Amino acid sequence: MSTWLEAGLWGLLGGGALVVGALVAWFVEVPSSVIASVMAFGSGVLISAVAFDLMAEAADSGGLLSAAVGFLAGAAAYLAGNAALARRGARHRKRSGDQQPSEGEQSGSGAAIAVGALLDGIPESVVLGVGLLTGGGVSLSVLAAVVISNVPEGLSSAAGMKKNGRSATYVFGVWTTIAVLSAVAALVGYTTLGSAPPEVIAVITAVAAGAILTMVADTMIPEAFEETHVWTGLITTVGFLLAFAIDRAG
Fold first, then answer.
1. CA dihedral 88, 89, 95, 97 (to 10 degrees)
2. How many Cβ atoms sit within 10 Å of the Cβ of residue 46?
3. CA–CA separation, 248 and 52 (whole Å)
4. In Å, how far are 118, 137, 141, 185 from 213, measured between CA atoms?
5. φ and ψ at 97, to 5 degrees?
6. Above pLDDT 70, what percent of the chain?
7. Which of 15, 78, 140, 167 lies deepest, with the highest CB count within 10 Å?
8. Which one, of 82, 90, 122, lies nearest residue 214 by Cα?
9. pTM, rounded to two decimals
10. Dmax of the chain from CA atoms?
11. pLDDT at 169
12. Above pLDDT 90, what percent of the chain?
């Protein structure tokens, strides 16, 4: 199989986990406490991947300064995009309750939520494609982090969409589109950076890492804490430990 096609398929797998989560939320009445617990677990998984895989790789190949600059740039870029979308109704796009506004309450919020979901997913997918540039296979720990975290993301967000009157066409249209675009992002990440020097790849990886960590802190952990409260830290730690174990085993 061509490596560029492999990159796209890994991206599709990661994005497809969002669709799986949305399917569960649409057809099964999942208690909010369970959604929050899984969200906390997924947060720990992503934090571990950012620390022990993405940032470690970026610093090793591009140097600490380049990794730090890229990391902060990714965080700032995500913050700016998220703030703009929040003003248009996408602030609570990952919430499973009734926090999301309906289209009647805030016109254009449906499109903003969809774009916000894309903003959340693209950095993860780019990392999957870029990870293949070293000549090895996809990083098992990063892939596991993306899949494990995307299921609760899709589940929580789709549950909130359903409660606020979004149609099945809208919900599954959003997540299917994100899955396809995740595949495209992974493919583009691989093909456009194929001849880039290691320092550039390191910066791109760090940018994605900064965006992912900011997303976790701003959208996933608040949803988890709202229901799990004092258990949030412990559940997040368990997710972190699992991803760390996968990384060490690989």
1. 180
2. 28
3. 9
4. 16, 24, 16, 19
5. -90, -150
6. 94
7. 15
8. 82
9. 0.85
10. 50
11. 92
12. 28
Please state, in angstroms and as integers, the Cα–Cα distance from residue 186 to each residue in 143, 147, 182, following that order: 12, 14, 6
Within 10 A of 169 (CB to CB), how many other CB atoms are there? 8
Q: Which residues, at least 6 apart from 87, have a Cβ–Cβ distance to it below 8 Å?
A: none
Helix (H) and strand (E) counts for the chain?
10, 0
136 contacts: CB under 8 Å, gap ≥ 6: none
Instruction: Please give the Cα distance from 26 to 159 (Å, whole number).
Output: 7
Which residues fall within 8 angstroms of residue 14, CB to CB, at 6 or more apart? 121, 124, 125, 128, 143, 146, 147, 150, 182, 186
Count CB atoms within 10 A of the CB of residue 198.
Answer: 16
> What CA–CA distance (Å, rounded) separates 213 from 85?
18
Tokens linked to 215: 């997303």
Q: Report, in angstroms and rounded to the nearest whole number, the Rg of the chain calculated over CA atoms.
A: 17
Average pLDDT of the segment spanning 58-77 = 93
Find all residues with CB under 8 Å of 52, minimum gap 6, and list them.
Answer: 141, 243, 244, 247
Cα gap 89→86, rounded to integer Å: 5
State how far the Cα of 84 lies from the Cα of 71, in Å rounded to an integer.
20
The Cα 164–Cα 192 span in angstroms is: 40
